[in-house]
Input
Amino acid sequence: MKSQQQEKRYLLECCVDSPESALAAARGGADRLELCAGLIIGGITPTMALYEKVKELTSLPVHVLIRPRFGDFLYTAEERDIICREIRAFAEAGADGVVIGSLLPDGTLDTDSMGRFLDNARGMSVTLHRAFDMCADPTGAWERASRLGVDSILTSGQASSCREGLPLLRKLSELSASGGPDILAGGGIDEDTVRDLLARTSVRSFHMSGKTVHNSGMTYRNPSVSMGLPGMSEYQIWRTDEKTVRSVKALLNAAAVHPDC
Output
């Protein structure tokens, strides 16, 4: 029989952008939430009201995405100031961690900005988000993040999904095994992908949205006006699916008890 401590060596984080998704993730067995807004555009900084509501509804640790806009990770001085202010605000609100990232024009990690962000994090856990996947040299970025004291790196292995990025995920997880940032595998995470990662890498932390598309309850729809992004309907709502989260969590629980299966 494995000890309780041993059975908790796998981590499942769910990325959510609504109270409904946060509740579904909690019911499905998620260990932690990454909270953002606008998941459909890759996630941006959530409002404080959303953070407070999620904390009211769940007891899970919450890591807050700090990303002031959609697009690349080359930030202006004004945007960097906003990021620092947001980090301090969520630190004061009691957030467990922040999820951040900044790059230089040549695709290297912006260590000066990252160092400033970490200084403002005030002891919170810090995850380098998928700006890492846009780095020119992932090994060099991992080493810089390690020197900065980053706790974890969210990555798909610089591919469109973790399954395609598995070779790099294997390499990074081997680097992390001897110390440095934990590798948080995210991008197309589902039960089958987790099974592959468990079998072929030493990754032990997983990040998923488990999203499903729900039809809007609007009965009147003006066909002449679109408020959504091109090719995306405002009458479709993305939410985390409790069953999808539960299936991944069950797999991780089974792997913790029977690691050789």
Summary: Residues 161 and 188 are 5 Å apart (CA to CA).
